[in-house]
Amino acid sequence: MDGSTVSDVTLERLHEIAAAFARRDVGGIVAAFAEDGEFRNARGPHYWGESFKGKAAIRGYFERLFSASGDVTWRHTAEFIHGDRAVTEWHRTATLASGERQEWLGCDLYTFRRGLIVMKDTYVKVVI
What does pTM read for this prediction? Predict the structure, then answer.
């Protein structure tokens, strides 16, 4: 053994995940998560937002999001990786069914295991 390790995440993997979000591909998004993966939304009733654990809960969240705002988009502006952790920064826009326009900057803090997301923790700038 030469001491090298296989990286848990690569820029290529981050780009694959971003592409699934850009396509609003719920199956592709869910497939990027480990079975025990967790998505923490920036909004929610707790100081950490709202947590969705496991593929079924994550699928349900994104199906609801995409049906409520069919034009939601994330444009990545920066990303970096350190070990099994990654950060992506992005600009999000969406129009809700009510006609309300949303726009904000945010970032995702990721933890990966063998190329799959075990934690995706989302943060956004609060627009007031």
Answer: 0.88
